[in-house]
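ok so i was messing around last nite and threw this chain in just to see what happens. nothing serious, just curious
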Amino acid sequence: MPIYDFHCLSCDRVFERIVRADALPECPHCGAAQVEKLVSMPAAPGKSAGIIASARRQAAKEGHFSHYNKAEKARVK
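result:
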């Protein structure tokens, strides 16, 4: 089930819930059933590979073994 953002029309708060596409939850703050589903901002694709590569480069500079893969770790010992 996907995560959706909701806006409560009673207390004007925004919250997110994991619900079915056709379900409307109650507001967790005031308990009102008058909520509207919001359009969520999608995550930008492809950023995790860059973050991992950057972390491995930094680990290599600092001399950590965390940037090696499993096969290379066995040889470094």
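not much to say yet. The first helix runs from residue 47 to 62.
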